[in-house]
Amino acid sequence: MANVGISIRIFYFLAFCSRNAADESSLVLWLILPILYLRPMEQLAAQIENYKKEVLAFTPQNAEEVEQFRIKYLGSKGLVKNLMAEMKNVPAEQKREAGQLLNEFKTLVENHFESFSSLQQNNHHSTQQIDITLPGNDIAIGSLHPLSIVRNKIIQIFQRLGFAVAEGPEIEDDWHNFGAMNLPEDHPARDMQDTFYINQNPAWLLRTHTSSVQARVMEQQKPPIRVICPGRVYRNETISARAHCFFHQVEGLYVDENVSFADLKQTLYFFVQEMFGHGTKIRFRPSYFPFTEPSAEMDISCLICGGKGCNVCKHTGWVEILGSGMVHPKVLENFNIDSNKYTGFAFGMGMERICQLKYRVNDLRLYSQNDVRFLQQFTAAL
Ligand SMILES: [Zn+2]
């Protein structure tokens, strides 16, 4: 290849020297020089080298381009044929070397063409080549998140008792989250529900419970009210296996004339039987919540040991699942509901807690880590 370069340079040098000469001898020199300095073998080698680069850079997008490539290089008037024809100009002693170069080039073009032929075939015969008797490829369909499974189940159970689903904003104002729920600003119970506040307005916060939805329902609806409020809530907590800065709750509210604690007990008893299986026992322990009076925590008999005592129930035979009580008259009055005429009950449970008991998940963080190995275990529940 170096020879070709030198020949070209000498040719142009001579051409430059004679460019102003008008005599016949310089004209002859013009005509003869290319033949003298660009000998057929070198010309051929240079051409092949250029074509090689062109071929290797070619990446077709469709069958049409592949066909154009074939015509250009391998067709009856293609470049490979043309180059073969030029063999006759190569001196006899160089024919062997030239032949080798040409064959290598031909093989390169053919292999390159072959690598795209599948693209060409697929496009040409796509309809004929589908074998509809072959089994299809599996498509991963995913599965419901365990919390979604539990939420859906809870909604299903309470809907059968006539409860509607209510939803509200996650960014709340102080009144709906605390004030209306009988948690005035200086109330010590607020300390247990530290949350995240919004910079633009210090009265805005991320709701600490779904009670704020109860407030919004009572604001807009008159009794009878029968709703459950599933949703995400927030607390300013250090993340650990037992605590998280966000989790999920379902609260229920029933306000009507003559609603009693017996209705509360019966409703929750029905829920537990449906959720955890018939024969699951319940018990109530007195408790305190600012928005209910009287208030009670509800336990169910341990699902693992059946009440005999194990690590999960801390050897008591009971596990706590929710808080409940009769709606505090002050809460009803906050929404202009006559507390002498109407009474109501409310309850609230953590969805993660129900999930933990149902699926034996002992680390809260697993629910939001998006680890497929964890989530895949719930596929069967779809
Ligand atoms: Zn137990």
TrEMBL record:
Annotated Mg(2+) binding lies at 293
Keyword annotations from UniProtKB, A to Z:
Aminoacyl-tRNA synthetase, ATP-binding, Cytoplasm, Ligase, Magnesium, Metal-binding, Nucleotide-binding, Protein biosynthesis
* Family annotation (HAMAP family): Phe_tRNA_synth_alpha1
Q: Which domain of life is it from?
A: Bacteria
Q: How does it assemble?
A: Tetramer of two alpha and two beta subunits.
- What is catalyzed by this enzyme? tRNA(Phe) + L-phenylalanine + ATP = L-phenylalanyl-tRNA(Phe) + AMP + diphosphate + H(+)
SUPFAM superfamilies in the record: Class II aaRS and biotin synthetases, tRNA-binding arm
Cofactors: Mg(2+)
Question: A Pfam family in this protein?
Answer: Phe_tRNA-synt_N
Under which name does UniProt file this protein? Phenylalanine--tRNA ligase alpha subunit
Q: Name one GO cellular component term.
A: cytoplasm
GO annotation terms (biological process): phenylalanyl-tRNA aminoacylation
Please list the GO terms describing molecular function: ATP binding; magnesium ion binding; phenylalanine-tRNA ligase activity; tRNA binding
How does the cofactor bind to this protein, according to its record?
Answer: Binds 2 magnesium ions per tetramer.
Which InterPro entries does its entry note?
A: aa-tRNA-synth_II (IPR006195), aa-tRNA-synth_II/BPL/LPL (IPR045864), Phe-tRNA-synth_IIc_asu (IPR004529), Phe-tRNA_ligase_II_N (IPR004188), Phe_tRNA_ligase_alpha1_bac (IPR022911), Phenylalanyl-tRNA_Synthase (IPR002319), tRNA-bd_arm (IPR010978)
What's its top-level EC category? ligase
Query: What organism is recorded for this protein?
Result: Hydrotalea sandarakina
Domain Aminoacyl-transfer RNA synthetases class-II family profile span(s) in chain numbering? 150-354
Instruction: Report the EC number(s), separated by commas if there are several.
Output: 6.1.1.20
